[in-house]
Amino acid sequence: MAEDFHKPTKFPGRVFESFQGGIDPAETSRIAHETALALLARVRNDPDPGVIDRLVAYTEEHGIDAIAELWSRATPRSLPGALWRIYLLQLMIKEDPHSASYLFTRGTEVMHTIDPVVAGAPIPAGPNEIVTLADQILRGLFEGDFAVALERAAAFCRVSASGAASVADDADAAEPVRSLDLTTRALRLSTLAHDLTGCARLWRQESLD
C-alpha cells in the first residue's frame, strides 16, 4: 500500500476509511499487535521527551502511510486499532484545524454533557488550541494515563460529531451536498468515539491487546 503514495502523504481529514489490502491477514494482525505493544512498552518504560516529540510529529514529516501499513487493518478495539485511530484523528485536525475548531465549538454550544470538559480544550477553542489539544492527546498515550488519553479523544469526537450534525441541519435546505458531507462526518466521528471509548474500557480491564 505504501507504494501508492509519495511521502509525506496528506490524508484528507474528512475521510475515516481504513486502507484496504494485504496478503496474509493473520500475519498482518500479528505484526500490528507486536509493533503496537513494542512501541508502547518502549516509550512508556523510558519516556524520553525527544522520542515522544518525534512520535507526536511523525505524520507531519513522514505522512500517514507507514502507520497505516502497520495498524489501519487492526480491529477497532485493539491496541494497534486504538493507536491508528488516535494518529488519524490527530492528522484530521492538523489537515484542517479551522474546520475542526469550528465544529468542536459548535458542539460545545449544542451539547449538554461533560464531554467538552473531558476533551480538555479551552472554550472557545481556535485552530491553534485544537492542534495543541490533538498533540496533547497523542502525547498522553505515551507518557500519561493511556485510558484517559483515549477518553479525551472520544469526548472530542463526540463534541465534534454533535457540532457537525448541527451545522448539517443548518445547511440542509440551502446546501444539501454540504449537509450530507457533514452528516457523514458526524457519523464517522461518532463511530470513532464509540471505538475509542471501548478501547479505554478494555485498557482499564487490562484486556486491550
Give descriptors for this structure.
209 residues, mainly alpha, 10 helices, 0% strand, globular, disordered N terminus, transcription
Number of structurally distinct domains: 1
Number of helices: 10
- Tell me the strand percentage band: under 5%
Helical content stands at: over 70%
Main beta sheet strand tally, sense and closure: none
Q: What is the strand tally?
A: 0
Mean pLDDT: 87
Order of helices and strands: HHHHHHHHHH
Catalogue the unreliable spans.
Answer: 1-22
Overall geometry comes to globular
Cα-based radius of gyration, to the nearest Å: 17 Å
Through-space gap between termini: 24 Å
Helix/strand structural class? mainly alpha
Protein name: DNA-directed RNA polymerase subunit beta
Keywords: DNA-directed RNA polymerase, Transcription
Structure characterization notes:
α5 (79-95) runs antiparallel to α8 and α8 (127-143) packs antiparallel against α9. The chain has one domain (22-209). The protein has helices at residues 25-45, 49-56, 58-62, 65-71, 79-95, 97-110, 115-119, 127-143, 146-171, 176-204. The protein is mostly helical and 209 residues long. Mean pLDDT is 87; it is low at 1-22. Keywords: DNA-directed RNA polymerase, Transcription.
